[in-house]
Amino acid sequence: MNTAPLTIRMHERDNVAIVANDGGLASGTALPAGPVLVDRVPQGHKVALVAIAAGAPVLRYGIAIGYALKDIPAGSWVHERLLQMPEARGLESLPIATVKPEPLPPLEGYHFEGYRNADGSVGTRNILAITQTVQCVAGVTDVAVRRIKAELLPRFPNVDDVVALEHGYGCGVAIDAPDAVVPIRTLRNISLNPNFGGEVMVVSLGCEKLQPERLLPPGTFSIVDERNVADTGANADTPLDVVCLQDDAHVGFMSMVDSIVRQAEEHLERLNARRRETVPASELVVGVQCGGSDAFSGVTANPAVGFCTDLLVRAGASVMFSEVTEVRDGIDQLTSRATTPAVAEAMIREMAWYDAYLKRGSADRSANTTPGNKKGGLSNIVEKAMGSIVKSGSSPISNVLAPGEKLKAKGLTYAATPASDFICGTLQLAAGMNLHVFTTGRGTPYGLAAVPVIKVATRSDLARRWHDLMDVNAGTIADGSASIEQVGWELFHLMLEVASGRKKTWAEHWKLHNALVLFNPAPVT
Ligand code: CA
Description:
Radius of gyration: 24 Å
Bound molecules: calcium ion
Structural class: alpha/beta
Shape: globular
Low-confidence stretches: 224-234
Distance between the termini: 57 Å
Number of domains: 3
Number of strands: 21
Strand order of the largest sheet: 17-18-16-15-19-20-21
Number of helices: 15
Helix content: 25-40%
Largest sheet: 7 strands, parallel
């Protein structure tokens, strides 16, 4: 453990650095390449390397994260109360597809063991998902799922789990409002996630606004494996499998539960017949996000994820990064990395839509930061965004998705979502993610039932205390015991192990699952 004073500066222009030492540094500490501290500076917080005059920019990542509200002497603790936050960058006159990075050499020879689906996607787990049209059926479905797990699942050892896709939508909503398309397509596309093998079954109440045929119109759900048609009799015209609780045939609660269990068995039989096969790493669909961030997020975990993102893109895989309010302040970096003007325009359109959405609620991007972010050294959303965006690596951005849309192509995609951990995860599931990477500095036990979540700690102190919750410790980068590249490769190899089912993540081990939370920007009634 390095006990000498250790500070990290991200860019040669920066006039602040963050303190890396566990427990921070005491007032009077002489920094090796800088001033003597005039305040105690907590771990992850910024110290002024030079005197900063009132009104002058405070620079981190080479950009102004704020302007000094008063004279800040060298060696001072630079916290959020000393900073005036800059205005959001306008969405006009942005650099469009100006950066043309040298294409990185393809990365070949990496594989994992996955479940091939009839629609061409590949699952990393083999799960029966039960789709619900409306929250009203959640209790009955839950009872049925407990019975399925106890009575049926032991007979189907190749099926990993049974998951009820519970949510709060489906009725009491303005279902014809323009923005209702977001929660509806999200639910539809989650039902089609690669980890569910194309086995769509629905539990409906009967009188709800979101009727089954509106959720999954004919032609949207038939991804039955053609190779099994002869065995199962299923084909592309198979009607949607719906258990309707208000159906006249149901007399009493147990008859509803029995119907769900009986239907589940058919799907479990088909899922159980599937086997993992060797597929190229290009079949990975990785969603990256962060939550409970601190000032180390942008120094350790997120750059390591960014390095891994570049490895995945080189391997021909799909990577999504998201979280609108955490990229809004770096929009010029993103539009310049777009492969085409159309991709940049789509990104700008998503930012403008979200600016307007926040404005309707009398808020802006600055509503993003939490008390924990600030305690962890992040002064404001500008600083948080600069650290968040590096998860996207350096590859060109070739696709953009609106919230709830399904992924269309491989490569690096910007999937526009709120930064809320649960909503971002839910929307990335809808996009077709089969593996999730989550970085955290403050610590969160986040997990999803449908997809493995690999959690990356930004600090060794968190990795030590949460040793059975964090899968990767990127704090070794700040300690000086590993490089960004080494942790990036460690993550890449772990992904292939987890995707193959050879390794479980800690969230899977403890069965830690957060709820699906739909993004519903439309009114409720
Ligand atoms: Ca998040």
